[in-house]
Amino acid sequence: MYVAVKGGERAIGNAHAWLAESRRGDPALPELSTAQIRAKLALATARVMAEGSLYDPDLAALAIKQARGDLIEAIFLIRAYRTTLPRFGHSRPVETARMACIRRISAIFKDVPGGQILGPTFDYTHRLLEFRLLAEGDTPPAPEAQPLAPECPHVTGFLGREGLIQTEPAGEARPPDLTRAPLELPAERALRLQALARGDEGFLLGLAYSTQRGYGRNHPFVGELRVGMVAVVLDIPELGFAVEIAEIELTECETVNQFTGSKTEPAQFTRGYGLAFGHAERKAIAMALVDRALRWRELGEEDTGAPAQHEEFVLSHCDNIQASGFVEHIKLPHYVDFQSELELVRRLRRDAAAGSEAAAE
Q1: Rg for the chain (alpha carbons), in Å?
Q2: Which of 71, 95, 336, 341 has its CA 20 to 30 A from that of 109?
Q3: Domain layout of the chain by residue ranges
Q4: For 45-59, 137-151, 181-195, 253-267, which range has the lowest pLDDT when averaged over its residues?
Q5: Strands 100-105 and 221-236: what pairing?
């Protein structure tokens, strides 16, 4: 049992008050609003939604504000709130081929139907600090608003017409839901993709990088990366037809990987797949690389022993809420555990000293 500490409740209350004061910051400055966070920290908001498994930019912005910018803490808040929400039904699979793209690029074809759409990206910036942003209200002039691009077919579809890329088998009509049932291993691909979609971006990024450096022999091309709005459609049993209930922003990535073929299949390309809420390119690409690395068994490839190929390792450690909880719990009271280990070390030292004295005699 833990040793009781007098005044603990009062101390915790004071810590909460101090946290609230720190979160507010300098009272001489205007308070940061959730609307500002949603509009101006859109990429942070997208990460919180993706790894929190809840698409709601307003709640994600609130969680970021409450967490003082700690995104993992904000994701924790969103996950906790999500468990309180009722579930009314399951939407149809979103049709990303009908996405209204604000960004759409392919690294394998220069000219694709619909065109390359650079969109808002850091890819071509010089990574130099823009000190003019320090001047309040000094913002560069915005270009005229452009309409979203029309529907664009998937680039990998062009390879599919020639049989040059593996045809993906149709999945279950309703795959298992990782948020309602515990993860079981080995996991089918649909379940793996759910875990990766909720996984920590940094963890997946490190694993993806490792595959490109030879730990998994996975150096793909980005077949297509697209960001845009898609419709969410829900079947309404009482009405007998489907209704569009919302539009959400998604980022989708399909990678193209070489595959030498087998006794039953000719040489062709295979895919890695990533999908995330909001504008989240790094997450979607990393997810696609790790997804492809985990497919080694079903594709009949060699197990190189690389971390990214180890399903249990990847899926058991990619969740940042579980990871942060287990890592950070060690800062909480462990008085009894430490006292027992302290007594053990003292006893071992006494026994060793006694043995040394006996040997000397």
Answers
A1: 26
A2: 95
A3: 13-82, 96-119+147-167+181-324
A4: 137-151
A5: antiparallel
